[in-house]
Amino acid sequence: MKSRKSSSGWLPLESVAFRWLLVPRLLGAFLVHISDCDETYNYWEPAHHLLYGGGFQTWEYSPTYALRSYGYILIHMFPLLATNTTNKLIAFYLVRVILAAVCALCEAYFYRAVAVRFGPVIARRTLLLLAGSCGMYIAAPAFLPSSFSMCLGMIALGAWFQREYTVAIFAVAVSSLVGWPFSAVLGIPIALDVVLYKRRPLLFIWWCLISFVMVSVPLVAIDSVYYGRPVLAPLNIVLYNVFGKGGPNLYGVEPLSYYLINGVLNFNVVFILALLAPLAVEFQTRPGIVHILQVFWEVLITVLGRGGSYVDTLKNILSAYQGNVPGAGIFIRSRDYRKVVQPMIIWMIIFFTRPHKEERFLFPIYPLFCLSAVVTLHLLPEILTVVLGVARMPRLLRRFFISHLPTLTLVVFLLLSLSRAVALHIGYGAPMDVYKSLNSHQILSFTEQFPEVTEVNVCVGKEWHRFPSSFFLPNNKSVLFASLLHIRSTFFLPNNKWNLRFLESDFKGQLPGLYSRHDNSTSVIPDHMNDLNREEPSRYFHLEKCHFLVDLDLPKTTPLQPRYSQDTGHWETVVRRPFLDTRRSHRLFRAFYVPWLSAQYTHYADYVLLRNKLLFVK
């Protein structure tokens, strides 16, 4: 059995839904580029250090501040213990595949909960939107706490929909303690429902305490070992963001339009429908509002179209509609529908008003965008029937438009999502391809011809934020699990043959530093770290010592950001990949790929790997 029949129509089984969802998720694991340097330096780099030794450490991982949890990192690294792979690229993509598969499982659970609470029609459409969403395609394989919270948020909301309150409370606790503390916002409607509406405050308090103890005790134990002192990382990050000197306002301060544009790019028409969901729910659950809207339209059309007296018209309409309120006969689930929109509204009120805005901050409500849009689509026909009927649209045309609106919306959504995903891969996939080429036989065999080169320095200037992680640097010693096991011996040695080095550029914030080579490197307080994003000149490397250099070869230059590829006496281009030049490309066609047209209205620069001729001399 691959599906089941219900009174409201066909419904795929959860196992079938999982397989449908798994296809785009696995594609994302291999094709989605790392778009957020926070993912690289705050998560992949500590993971690399725990597994292989060596890697970059941000100020958040300094024991002085201890804002990030090593427990979160370890959860993602333990599957690699079973494989015992020594190939870092394989390890990188294996973690991404696991993240993608887990997200698909959580989506399947969320889909089942939607089917139980809202029925097959809404469940089927939600499944389609989840599977086809470019936003979910991007967020699912991301090694980020917000993606972790997105998955657990689906578990929490799905359990809430099915009245499994203990599961919902525990999922919120894991999400906020292990993942991202601010994801607890998703638990506000759950708490209000359990305490105020269900009147079960003791259940809520008891399970909050149980969940806190079960999650925080092992978390504190792990982080205390790695930081060398008692640490509750979620508390530290909340205190920093609320009471810190500069707090989050030091990074990524953007206007409100940033989130609106992001929503349109990643969800297109679905994002607009999701924003309309609160209004649609109120219209559907309060028939009087629909009635008022209908009266308003009748008056407006009559006065503007016929020039009659609006007073007489209003009296006639009210008399005609007396005792016959439109919408009163609809099957109304006011509380159910509000359960969909409440978490999204609360999240948007809090995060849309904060100065610091990042795309990843929206990840936890990405599934709610899909479900809210479906709710709007489900309720819209009744509202349009009123509006279009009053607007004097012919009956056959009106019925055709309303009956085909969901299908038309889904088709447009899927086409635009595919277009966006293709545009991202073509336009921004070059950095990961270039860094992967460091592991090619061509590069490795060439460097092996120079045994005197004991350390290979790969340098990067203005492109530091597109470094996908040290997992992309070759490893010749195949050292695994050095720091993870807190063991140091002649076998467990850090692999330092290939290093990434920073060149000074026009960026004047704080770059991450290298982890200490000390035995207890994670508990050593590093020098030259600050929590104010002040530039640390100690991070910069000498250009003449760079064996390779990665750069985006743009026409515009500055004294600190020259076109290195033009210095042919010093540098030789080894690898070249096209990368979108956003300044010279049309906004629409750089955001969405349109066959033939995109090639005409977009321009590309070369993303290059350069080899230092002066250091490789036979």
Automatic annotation (TrEMBL):
Keyword set includes Membrane: yes
Domain of life: Eukaryota
Gene Ontology MF terms in the entry: alpha-1,2-mannosyltransferase activity
Subcellular location: Endoplasmic reticulum membrane
Similarity field: Belongs to the glycosyltransferase 22 family.
GO cellular component: endoplasmic reticulum membrane
Protein name per UniProt: Mannosyltransferase
Pathway where this protein functions: Protein modification; protein glycosylation
Organism: Geodia barretti
